[in-house]
Amino acid sequence: MRKRVYITRNVPEIALQLLNDNQIDYTVWTENRHQPAEELIPVMKEYDAIIVSGPLQVDRHFLESCRHLRIISMMSVGYDNVDVTAAKDLGIAVGNTPGVLSGATADTAFLLMLAASRKAFHMHKEILRGNWNFWDPTANLGLELNGKTLGIVGLGRIGFEMAQRCAGAYGMKIIYYNRGINEEAERQLGAIRVSFDELLQNSDVVSVHTALTPETKELFNKEVFSKMKPSAIFVNTARGGIHNEGDLIAALQNGTIWGAGLDVTNPEPMTADNPLLNMPNVAVLPHIGSATVDTRNAMAAIAARNVIRTFEGKELEHAVVE
Ligand code: DGY
Predict the structure, then answer these.
(1) What is the atom index within ligand 1 of the atom nearest the CA of 290?
(2) Annotated Gene Ontology MF terms (predicted)?
(3) Is residue 22 within 8 Å of 308, Cβ to Cβ?
(4) Could you list the active site residues?
(5) Which fold has domain 102-284?
(6) Which CATH fold topology does 4-100+293-321 show?
(7) 216-255, pLDDT tens digit by residue?
(8) Does 54 have pLDDT greater than 90?
(9) Sequence spans of domains, the chain
(10) Quick check: helix, strand or coil at residue 150?
(11) Which residues line ligand 1 (CB under 6 A)?
Protein backbone atom coordinates (compact mmCIF):
# COMPACT_ATOMS: atom_id res chain seq x y z
CA MET A 1 0.00 0.00 0.00
CA ARG A 2 1.22 3.52 -0.79
CA LYS A 3 2.52 5.49 2.18
CA ARG A 4 0.84 8.74 3.17
CA VAL A 5 2.37 11.94 4.55
CA TYR A 6 0.61 14.86 6.16
CA ILE A 7 2.22 18.28 5.61
CA THR A 8 1.22 20.96 8.12
CA ARG A 9 1.66 23.92 5.75
CA ASN A 10 2.33 24.78 2.13
CA VAL A 11 5.90 23.77 1.34
CA PRO A 12 8.07 24.43 -1.72
CA GLU A 13 7.13 22.29 -4.72
CA ILE A 14 10.39 20.34 -4.60
CA ALA A 15 9.19 18.41 -1.52
CA LEU A 16 5.97 17.35 -3.27
CA GLN A 17 7.92 16.38 -6.37
CA LEU A 18 10.25 14.16 -4.35
CA LEU A 19 7.30 12.47 -2.64
CA ASN A 20 5.55 11.96 -5.99
CA ASP A 21 8.72 10.51 -7.54
CA ASN A 22 8.79 7.98 -4.71
CA GLN A 23 5.09 7.03 -5.02
CA ILE A 24 4.23 8.59 -1.67
CA ASP A 25 0.82 10.26 -1.26
CA TYR A 26 0.47 13.45 0.68
CA THR A 27 -2.05 15.94 2.02
CA VAL A 28 -1.09 19.58 2.53
CA TRP A 29 -2.89 21.76 5.08
CA THR A 30 -3.59 24.93 3.09
CA GLU A 31 -5.96 26.87 5.34
CA ASN A 32 -4.77 30.27 6.42
CA ARG A 33 -4.64 29.40 10.12
CA HIS A 34 -2.54 27.19 12.33
CA GLN A 35 -4.08 23.74 12.76
CA PRO A 36 -3.86 22.85 16.46
CA ALA A 37 -2.69 19.42 17.62
CA GLU A 38 -6.12 18.45 19.02
CA GLU A 39 -7.68 18.94 15.60
CA LEU A 40 -4.84 17.13 13.86
CA ILE A 41 -4.69 14.00 16.06
CA PRO A 42 -7.86 12.29 14.69
CA VAL A 43 -6.75 13.11 11.12
CA MET A 44 -3.31 11.56 11.64
CA LYS A 45 -4.71 8.02 11.85
CA GLU A 46 -4.60 7.84 8.06
CA TYR A 47 -0.96 8.91 7.74
CA ASP A 48 2.42 7.23 8.16
CA ALA A 49 4.49 10.40 8.55
CA ILE A 50 4.17 14.12 9.12
CA ILE A 51 6.24 17.01 7.76
CA VAL A 52 6.01 19.81 10.32
CA SER A 53 6.65 23.43 9.50
CA GLY A 54 5.31 25.91 12.00
CA PRO A 55 4.50 25.86 15.68
CA LEU A 56 2.67 22.52 16.06
CA GLN A 57 3.20 21.19 19.60
CA VAL A 58 4.44 17.64 19.12
CA ASP A 59 4.25 16.71 22.79
CA ARG A 60 3.97 13.32 24.49
CA HIS A 61 0.17 13.37 24.19
CA PHE A 62 0.40 14.01 20.44
CA LEU A 63 3.02 11.29 19.98
CA GLU A 64 1.14 8.76 22.11
CA SER A 65 -2.00 9.47 20.12
CA CYS A 66 -0.09 9.01 16.86
CA ARG A 67 2.33 6.23 17.78
CA HIS A 68 1.85 4.61 14.39
CA LEU A 69 3.76 7.52 12.80
CA ARG A 70 7.16 6.48 11.51
CA ILE A 71 8.71 9.98 11.47
CA ILE A 72 8.17 13.56 12.55
CA SER A 73 10.06 15.36 9.80
CA MET A 74 10.71 18.94 10.87
CA MET A 75 11.15 21.49 8.11
CA SER A 76 13.30 23.56 10.46
CA VAL A 77 16.56 23.28 12.32
CA GLY A 78 14.79 23.97 15.63
CA TYR A 79 12.79 21.21 17.28
CA ASP A 80 11.97 22.78 20.64
CA ASN A 81 8.28 22.06 19.96
CA VAL A 82 8.96 18.31 19.84
CA ASP A 83 9.17 16.11 22.92
CA VAL A 84 12.30 14.29 21.82
CA THR A 85 12.35 12.01 24.87
CA ALA A 86 8.79 10.86 24.16
CA ALA A 87 9.65 10.27 20.48
CA LYS A 88 12.62 8.12 21.58
CA ASP A 89 10.48 6.19 24.07
CA LEU A 90 7.85 5.51 21.43
CA GLY A 91 10.31 4.67 18.65
CA ILE A 92 9.24 7.52 16.40
CA ALA A 93 12.04 9.09 14.34
CA VAL A 94 12.55 12.86 14.28
CA GLY A 95 14.45 14.62 11.49
CA ASN A 96 15.40 18.27 10.99
CA THR A 97 17.09 20.49 8.39
CA PRO A 98 20.33 21.99 9.76
CA GLY A 99 23.15 23.50 7.72
CA VAL A 100 21.26 24.73 4.69
CA LEU A 101 19.71 27.69 6.53
CA SER A 102 22.81 28.96 8.33
CA GLY A 103 23.76 31.62 5.77
CA ALA A 104 20.24 33.02 5.37
CA THR A 105 19.69 33.15 9.14
CA ALA A 106 23.05 34.81 9.75
CA ASP A 107 22.17 37.36 7.04
CA THR A 108 19.01 38.15 9.01
CA ALA A 109 20.96 38.59 12.25
CA PHE A 110 23.44 40.87 10.46
CA LEU A 111 20.61 42.87 8.89
CA LEU A 112 18.91 43.34 12.27
CA MET A 113 22.16 44.36 13.97
CA LEU A 114 22.80 46.98 11.33
CA ALA A 115 19.16 48.14 11.19
CA ALA A 116 19.05 48.60 14.97
CA SER A 117 22.43 50.36 15.06
CA ARG A 118 21.24 52.94 12.49
CA LYS A 119 17.56 53.07 13.60
CA ALA A 120 16.72 52.09 10.03
CA PHE A 121 13.21 50.68 10.52
CA HIS A 122 12.21 53.71 12.60
CA MET A 123 13.60 56.10 9.99
CA HIS A 124 11.60 54.36 7.28
CA LYS A 125 8.44 54.80 9.37
CA GLU A 126 9.26 58.48 9.82
CA ILE A 127 9.25 58.98 6.04
CA LEU A 128 5.87 57.23 5.79
CA ARG A 129 4.55 59.56 8.53
CA GLY A 130 5.63 62.60 6.47
CA ASN A 131 8.39 63.50 8.94
CA TRP A 132 11.32 63.86 6.49
CA ASN A 133 11.70 67.60 6.80
CA PHE A 134 15.30 68.76 6.67
CA TRP A 135 18.79 67.33 7.08
CA ASP A 136 19.62 67.71 10.76
CA PRO A 137 23.26 67.10 11.73
CA THR A 138 22.32 66.33 15.32
CA ALA A 139 19.31 64.07 14.79
CA ASN A 140 18.85 60.40 13.93
CA LEU A 141 22.30 59.41 15.14
CA GLY A 142 23.13 55.73 15.40
CA LEU A 143 26.07 53.64 16.51
CA GLU A 144 29.03 52.43 14.44
CA LEU A 145 30.06 48.81 14.49
CA ASN A 146 33.60 49.11 13.15
CA GLY A 147 36.12 47.48 15.48
CA LYS A 148 33.49 46.72 18.12
CA THR A 149 33.06 43.43 19.97
CA LEU A 150 30.50 40.84 18.95
CA GLY A 151 29.45 38.33 21.61
CA ILE A 152 27.93 35.15 20.19
CA VAL A 153 25.82 33.01 22.49
CA GLY A 154 25.83 29.52 20.95
CA LEU A 155 28.60 29.27 18.36
CA GLY A 156 27.27 26.58 16.03
CA ARG A 157 26.82 26.85 12.28
CA ILE A 158 24.62 29.97 12.30
CA GLY A 159 26.66 31.72 15.00
CA PHE A 160 29.81 31.01 12.99
CA GLU A 161 28.31 32.55 9.84
CA MET A 162 27.25 35.64 11.81
CA ALA A 163 30.75 35.94 13.33
CA GLN A 164 32.31 35.58 9.87
CA ARG A 165 30.15 38.40 8.48
CA CYS A 166 30.90 40.74 11.39
CA ALA A 167 34.63 40.02 11.41
CA GLY A 168 34.82 40.45 7.64
CA ALA A 169 32.65 43.56 7.29
CA TYR A 170 33.66 45.50 10.39
CA GLY A 171 36.74 43.80 11.77
CA MET A 172 34.70 43.06 14.86
CA LYS A 173 36.41 41.18 17.67
CA ILE A 174 34.58 37.90 18.28
CA ILE A 175 33.99 36.48 21.74
CA TYR A 176 31.67 33.56 22.36
CA TYR A 177 29.88 31.60 25.04
CA ASN A 178 29.42 27.96 24.10
CA ARG A 179 29.38 24.55 25.75
CA GLY A 180 32.42 23.44 23.76
CA ILE A 181 35.37 25.08 22.03
CA ASN A 182 34.80 26.05 18.38
CA GLU A 183 38.28 25.47 17.01
CA GLU A 184 37.42 26.61 13.50
CA ALA A 185 36.14 29.97 14.79
CA GLU A 186 39.18 30.40 16.99
CA ARG A 187 41.55 29.57 14.12
CA GLN A 188 39.79 31.44 11.31
CA LEU A 189 38.28 34.41 13.14
CA GLY A 190 40.43 34.69 16.25
CA ALA A 191 37.29 34.06 18.32
CA ILE A 192 37.82 33.81 22.06
CA ARG A 193 35.69 31.62 24.34
CA VAL A 194 34.63 33.46 27.51
CA SER A 195 32.26 32.98 30.43
CA PHE A 196 28.67 34.17 30.05
CA ASP A 197 29.26 37.14 32.37
CA GLU A 198 32.44 38.16 30.52
CA LEU A 199 30.52 38.05 27.26
CA LEU A 200 27.75 40.25 28.65
CA GLN A 201 30.17 42.79 30.11
CA ASN A 202 32.39 43.11 27.04
CA SER A 203 30.08 42.84 24.01
CA ASP A 204 28.86 45.80 21.99
CA VAL A 205 26.51 43.41 20.20
CA VAL A 206 25.18 40.21 21.79
CA SER A 207 23.78 37.84 19.16
CA VAL A 208 21.89 34.74 20.24
CA HIS A 209 22.24 31.53 18.18
CA THR A 210 21.48 28.82 20.68
CA ALA A 211 18.56 26.39 20.85
CA LEU A 212 15.60 26.94 23.16
CA THR A 213 16.01 24.43 25.99
CA PRO A 214 15.07 24.43 29.68
CA GLU A 215 18.54 25.98 30.33
CA THR A 216 18.13 28.82 27.81
CA LYS A 217 14.43 29.55 28.46
CA GLU A 218 14.23 33.29 29.26
CA LEU A 219 17.99 33.28 29.84
CA PHE A 220 17.96 36.95 28.85
CA ASN A 221 16.05 38.51 31.73
CA LYS A 222 16.31 41.64 33.85
CA GLU A 223 19.43 40.45 35.68
CA VAL A 224 21.24 39.43 32.49
CA PHE A 225 20.37 42.66 30.62
CA SER A 226 21.68 44.62 33.62
CA LYS A 227 25.13 43.08 33.06
CA MET A 228 25.31 44.31 29.45
CA LYS A 229 26.80 47.64 28.34
CA PRO A 230 24.32 50.54 28.18
CA SER A 231 25.48 50.96 24.57
CA ALA A 232 24.89 47.29 23.67
CA ILE A 233 22.58 45.89 20.99
CA PHE A 234 20.78 42.60 21.67
CA VAL A 235 20.08 40.45 18.58
CA ASN A 236 17.90 37.34 18.71
CA THR A 237 17.28 35.25 15.59
CA ALA A 238 17.09 31.93 17.46
CA ARG A 239 13.92 31.58 19.52
CA GLY A 240 11.85 34.28 21.22
CA GLY A 241 11.54 32.12 24.32
CA ILE A 242 15.23 32.78 25.04
CA HIS A 243 14.44 36.34 26.15
CA ASN A 244 11.86 37.65 28.60
CA GLU A 245 10.03 40.21 26.51
CA GLY A 246 8.81 42.36 29.44
CA ASP A 247 12.37 42.56 30.78
CA LEU A 248 13.71 43.40 27.31
CA ILE A 249 11.17 46.20 26.88
CA ALA A 250 12.08 47.59 30.33
CA ALA A 251 15.83 47.31 29.62
CA LEU A 252 15.39 49.34 26.40
CA GLN A 253 13.03 51.88 27.99
CA ASN A 254 15.28 52.61 30.96
CA GLY A 255 18.55 52.62 29.00
CA THR A 256 19.99 49.42 30.49
CA ILE A 257 20.83 48.47 26.90
CA TRP A 258 20.82 50.61 23.74
CA GLY A 259 18.96 48.64 21.09
CA ALA A 260 17.64 45.33 19.82
CA GLY A 261 17.16 43.39 16.59
CA LEU A 262 14.62 40.59 16.77
CA ASP A 263 13.53 38.02 14.22
CA VAL A 264 11.84 36.03 16.98
CA THR A 265 9.59 37.31 19.73
CA ASN A 266 8.07 36.08 22.96
CA PRO A 267 5.25 35.33 22.35
CA GLU A 268 4.99 34.78 18.61
CA PRO A 269 3.40 36.26 16.62
CA MET A 270 3.95 39.72 18.10
CA THR A 271 0.85 41.91 18.14
CA ALA A 272 0.87 45.29 16.38
CA ASP A 273 0.54 47.19 19.68
CA ASN A 274 3.82 45.84 21.11
CA PRO A 275 5.92 48.78 22.42
CA LEU A 276 9.05 47.33 20.79
CA LEU A 277 7.60 48.27 17.40
CA ASN A 278 7.69 51.96 18.29
CA MET A 279 11.19 52.12 19.71
CA PRO A 280 13.63 53.92 17.39
CA ASN A 281 16.56 51.63 18.24
CA VAL A 282 14.67 48.40 17.70
CA ALA A 283 14.21 46.41 14.48
CA VAL A 284 11.73 43.54 14.42
CA LEU A 285 11.05 40.98 11.68
CA PRO A 286 8.38 38.25 11.69
CA HIS A 287 10.57 35.12 12.01
CA ILE A 288 11.90 35.18 8.45
CA GLY A 289 15.46 34.04 9.22
CA SER A 290 15.52 31.24 6.67
CA ALA A 291 13.06 32.82 4.22
CA THR A 292 14.94 32.81 0.93
CA VAL A 293 13.90 30.79 -2.12
CA ASP A 294 17.11 28.74 -2.16
CA THR A 295 17.11 28.03 1.56
CA ARG A 296 13.45 27.07 1.79
CA ASN A 297 13.84 24.77 -1.25
CA ALA A 298 16.81 23.09 0.41
CA MET A 299 14.94 22.71 3.71
CA ALA A 300 11.86 21.26 1.98
CA ALA A 301 13.99 18.77 0.05
CA ILE A 302 15.71 17.51 3.22
CA ALA A 303 12.36 17.22 5.04
CA ALA A 304 10.97 15.13 2.16
CA ARG A 305 14.13 13.00 1.83
CA ASN A 306 14.06 12.29 5.58
CA VAL A 307 10.55 10.85 5.10
CA ILE A 308 11.53 8.86 2.01
CA ARG A 309 14.62 7.45 3.72
CA THR A 310 12.53 6.39 6.72
CA PHE A 311 10.14 4.44 4.49
CA GLU A 312 13.16 2.87 2.75
CA GLY A 313 14.59 1.82 6.11
CA LYS A 314 17.66 4.02 5.61
CA GLU A 315 19.41 6.40 8.00
CA LEU A 316 17.96 9.92 8.01
CA GLU A 317 19.88 12.66 6.21
CA HIS A 318 19.65 14.70 9.43
CA ALA A 319 18.42 12.92 12.51
CA VAL A 320 17.38 14.25 15.91
CA VAL A 321 15.98 10.83 16.88
CA GLU A 322 16.56 7.76 14.71
C1 DGY B 1 14.17 26.96 12.13
O2 DGY B 1 14.60 26.35 11.16
O3 DGY B 1 14.26 26.51 13.28
C4 DGY B 1 13.48 28.25 11.88
O5 DGY B 1 13.50 29.07 12.98
C6 DGY B 1 12.07 28.01 11.45
O7 DGY B 1 11.33 27.57 12.53
Answers:
(1) 4
(2) glyoxylate reductase (NADPH) activity; hydroxypyruvate reductase [NAD(P)H] activity; NAD binding
(3) yes
(4) 239, 268, 287
(5) Rossmann fold (3.40.50)
(6) Rossmann fold (3.40.50)
(7) 999 999 999 999 999 999 999 999 999 999 999 999 999 9
(8) no
(9) 4-100+293-321, 102-284
(10) strand
(11) 76-78, 101, 289-290
